[in-house]
């Protein structure tokens, strides 16, 4: 009976970059199989497609072949070229040790057969390996220089960038969504709230998936949408059209980098925009929203309060909406302009402070005090008054999410009190609305 070792020849094929057609590995495979058939060798193919041997990235098929070699299952290894097997001297030495230990033959179609059990064969393999390594390093340097040139000239980075095709042309249907998201994030909306609203509207990513808050953060953090390309620590004006302005991009970057920015920390998103500002007129506790057969009502929870107040949510909502509309019609809103230069300087100070602390050159108490002071100042400079986002209140209200509505309501109204029923339960006289002065500082960041 013939052993498995006597029957099996390993064919190893690999290509570093594949365009999706698999033509590279298939050409290698066809030539290697033809050689095995001509020699009468029974073969098994081990394929690593779109994986470089130069980078050190794991090659599953290669590792499996080496395990089979160590298990004594292989008689010989066939490859198209020597550099398909390895481009690292370290990998080559491990390969030589394994081949010597198991006494197998190595056949390379473009380079010939060499016996790694002999000194001359090993010298040949090492020379070929050194040449392959040199070619890889030269190719790597050429690629790095080319990418540096593209960065310096502001060439479009390519890839899958929301709002653009692969040539840098604006896709207006996507750009419209990006502009809306950017403006509303600057205006105080959370990424989670915006993600949920896009999902409810059926807006999908370029790959047809749900746009999650993390995806929004990545998209808003990309300088490409502002017509910029990163070059080290600086930005180069790109050769393509920006979707948002560089000023908007800088403000978004400062807000995302602000350590005191509210991100919900995994807490569920607010479901009702009046929650958190509506209280019981009897005991002062915050009122809860309860659903009774799809009829929502504000009630004073027994655990937290007196359980003595209740009113339909829609009645309170309508009353507060009218109060907001009246106030905004009367108000003269001026959007505060953020100080980008000072904000960036403070952000740089925070980064330097963190480096000093990490190196152990500052005591924790001193670091905490300075960090808190700088973070507070950065928050003031990078926060917009939510009222500055109001353009057409009535239309915006219909199309906006709960987060924005709560931000506007909290900016104008300090408290909504629902008093106990005296006669008619739905009487508007039971609703007391305490307004802020529009020129008072915004409580929303």
What is the gist of this entry?
With 445 residues, the chain is an alpha/beta fold. It has helices at residues 4-7, 23-39, 60-70, 82-85, 89-102, 119-153, 172-186, 191-200, 213-221, 246-256, 313-330, 340-358, 364-382, 393-399, 402-412, and strands at 8-15, 42-49, 76-79, 105-108, 112-114, 228-231, 234-237, 278-280, 288-292, 295-299, 310-312, 413-418, 431-435. The protein folds into four domains: 4-142, Rossmann fold (3-Layer(aba) Sandwich), CATH 3.40.50.1390; 172-258, Hect, E3 ligase catalytic domain fold; 278-335 and 385-435, no CATH class; 340-382.
Give the tags.
single chain; five-stranded mixed sheet; Hect, E3 ligase catalytic domain fold; alpha/beta; elongated; three-stranded mixed sheet; Rossmann fold; 46% helix; disordered N terminus; 13 strands; 445 residues
Walk me through what this model shows.
This protein is an alpha/beta fold. It is built from 15 helices and 13 strands. The chain has helices at 4-7, 23-39, 60-70, 82-85, 89-102, 119-153, 172-186, 191-200, 213-221, 246-256, 313-330, 340-358, 364-382, 393-399, 402-412, and strands at 8-15, 42-49, 76-79, 105-108, 112-114, 228-231, 234-237, 278-280, 288-292, 295-299, 310-312, 413-418, 431-435. The strands form 4 sheets. A 5-stranded mixed beta sheet has the order 2-1-3-4-5, with helices on both faces. It has a 3-stranded mixed beta sheet with strand order 8-12-13. It has a 3-stranded antiparallel beta sheet with strand order 9-10-11. Strand 6 and strand 7 (234-237) form a beta hairpin. The protein is elongated, with a radius of gyration of 33 Å.
């Amino acid at each position: 009976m013939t052993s498995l070792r006597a029957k099996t020849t390993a064919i190893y094929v690999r290509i570093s970059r594949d365009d999706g057609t698999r033509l590279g590995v298939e050409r290698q495979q066809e030539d290697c199989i033809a050689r095995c058939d001509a020699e009468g060798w029974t073969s098994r193919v081990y394929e690593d497609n779109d994986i470089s041997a130069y980078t050190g990235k794991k090659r599953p098929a290669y590792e499996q072949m080496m395990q089979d070699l160590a298990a004594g299952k292989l008689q010989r290894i066939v490859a198209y070229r020597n550099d398909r097997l390895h481009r690292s001297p370290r990998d080559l030495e491990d390969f030589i040790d394994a081949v010597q230990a198991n006494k197998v033959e190595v056949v390379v179609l473009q380079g010939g057969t060499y016996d790694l059990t002999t000194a001359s064969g090993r010298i040949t393999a090492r020379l070929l390996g050194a040449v392959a390594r040199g070619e890889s390093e030269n190719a790597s340097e050429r690629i790095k220089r080319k990418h540096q040139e593209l960065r310096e000239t502001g060439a479009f980075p390519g890839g899958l960038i929301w709002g653009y095709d692969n040539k840098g042309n604006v896709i207006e249907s996507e750009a419209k969504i990006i502009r809306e998201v950017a403006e509303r994030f600057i205006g105080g909306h959370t990424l989670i709230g915006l993600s949920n609203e896009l999902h409810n509207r059926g807006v999908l990513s370029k790959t047809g998936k749900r746009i999650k808050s993390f995806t929004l953060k990545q998209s808003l953090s990309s300088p490409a949408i502002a017509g910029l390309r990163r070059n080290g620590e600086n930005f180069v004006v790109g050769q393509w059209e920006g979707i948002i302005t560089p000023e908007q991009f800088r403000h978004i970057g400062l807000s995302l980098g602000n350590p005191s920015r509210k991100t919900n920390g995994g807490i569920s998103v607010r479901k009702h925009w009046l929650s958190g500002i509506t209280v019981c007129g009897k005991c002062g506790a915050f009122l809860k929203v309860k659903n009774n057969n799809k009829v929502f009502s504000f009630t004073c929870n027994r655990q937290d309060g007196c359980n003595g107040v209740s009113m339909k949510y829609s009645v309170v909502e309508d009353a507060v909406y009218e109060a907001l509309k009246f106030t905004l019609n009367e108000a003269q809103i001026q959007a505060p302009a953020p100080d980008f230069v000072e904000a960036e300087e403070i952000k740089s100070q925070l980064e330097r402070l963190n480096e000093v602390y990490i190196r152990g050159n500052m005591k924790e108490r001193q670091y905490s005090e300075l960090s808190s002071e700088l973070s507070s100042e950065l928050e003031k400079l990078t926060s917009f008054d939510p009222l500055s986002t109001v353009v057409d209140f009535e239309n915006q209200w219909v199309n906006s999410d709960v987060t924005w509505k709560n931000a506007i309501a909290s900016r104008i109204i300090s408290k909504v009190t629902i008093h106990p029923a005296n006669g008619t339960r739905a009487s508007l006289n039971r609703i007391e609305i305490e307004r802020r002065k529009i020129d008072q500082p915004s409580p929303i960041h």
